[in-house]
Structure formats: structure tokens, C-alpha cells
Amino acid sequence: MQFAPGYRRFALPAFVGAAVAAFVFPPLGAVLLAAGAFVLWFFRDPERSPPDEPGVVSPADGHVSVIRVEDGRVRVGVFMNVTDVHVNRAPVSGAVRTVTHRPGAHKPAFSKDSDRNERVDIELDTDEGDHEVSLIAGAFARRIHSYVAPGDELVRGQKLGHIDFGSRADVLLPPEYGSEDVVVEKGESVRAGETVLARR
């Protein structure tokens, strides 16, 4: 099993603490051991394969929480709860134009207020126009990790970042896409790099 970068900073203290506590106070050792195991499970990074069919794939595992039109463009958002894989993937193939970090609040990622949360916006230049992927922190997420930089060439389904502990990932589609091109519904379960969100 692969793990997302950064898992050691959470898992190692828990496992070291568990080893020490096992001799001093075994119940605490058991709790710390369980905490370390949870961190490894949370940071899991399973392999994914984009589908043969064309279309914009989900940037995240989770449930569709946002489908709306804003300024003439369709936004599709995926809420990741604590049980979901938190490695994010490119919804389309293209060149990274910009990567922008925007500081902000840490409201629950499923709420309307989360639009003002801390986020990283990644603009992708593709044959179909500009796509934007937004990695949005949640109430407990305190760090967004981007794996890409301007000028990088990405293929659909490639890993582009992850967020620690609860969050949301959105795709802002090009103006050429309409609401009728979205093929998922709110509440639907999706998988990063595999589930098609929209196609034209």
C-alpha cells in the first residue's frame, strides 16, 4: 500500500509514543497504536485507472456536494469525509497554468461558508478550454499539499495533491460546458480519477 506524503509526521509520533507507553501505561499505548494505524489508513494512496470513456473525472473520492453555475461556468464539488481517500487527481489532461494558495477560514467543507475557506486553485490549460481545480480545506484540515507547479503537463487521473483530514475538491468547468453536461447528481458517490463528472 502506498501512502500520501506527510504521513510520517503524524504516524511516527503515535507509534513511538505507543512503544513507550506500552511499558508505562498500556491502555494509553493501545490508544496511540490505534491512532497511528488510523493515520496510515487515512493517508492511504490506492492505485486508480481513468476510464476508457471520455469526460472530466472526479478530482476526489467522496460525495458530490456542489453543482451550480457561477459567472457562466459550472462548478462541481466533491466533499471528502474522514473515511475517504484524500489524494486528489487531475480531472483532465493539460498544462498547469497557475497554482495559487488563498488563505481563509476553516469552516466545515460541506457548508456554504466553505467557499471562503483556505484553498489552493490549480488552473489547467486544455484543448477544451480552461479547467480549474480547487482543493479546499475543511474544519479540521490545516494543510493543503500541492504536487504540481506551473508548466507541468498532467494526464487525466494523475495525482496533483492531497489535503490533511477532511476537505472538498471542486472542478470549475470551461464556459463551453452547461449544466446538462454534468452526468452526476448531488449526493452521488464518486472516485478520484475514475468517475466521470461531465462530458460534452
From TrEMBL:
GO molecular function, one term: phosphatidylserine decarboxylase activity
InterPro entries noted in UniProt: PS_Dcarbxylase (IPR003817), PSD-A (IPR033175)
Keyword Cell membrane: yes
GO biological process, one term: phospholipid biosynthetic process
Residue spans crossing the bilayer: 12-43
Keywords: Cell membrane, Decarboxylase, Lipid biosynthesis, Lipid metabolism, Lyase, Membrane, Phospholipid biosynthesis, Phospholipid metabolism, Pyruvate, Transmembrane, Transmembrane helix, Zymogen
Name of the protein described by the UniProt record: Phosphatidylserine decarboxylase
Species, as recorded: Haloferax marisrubri
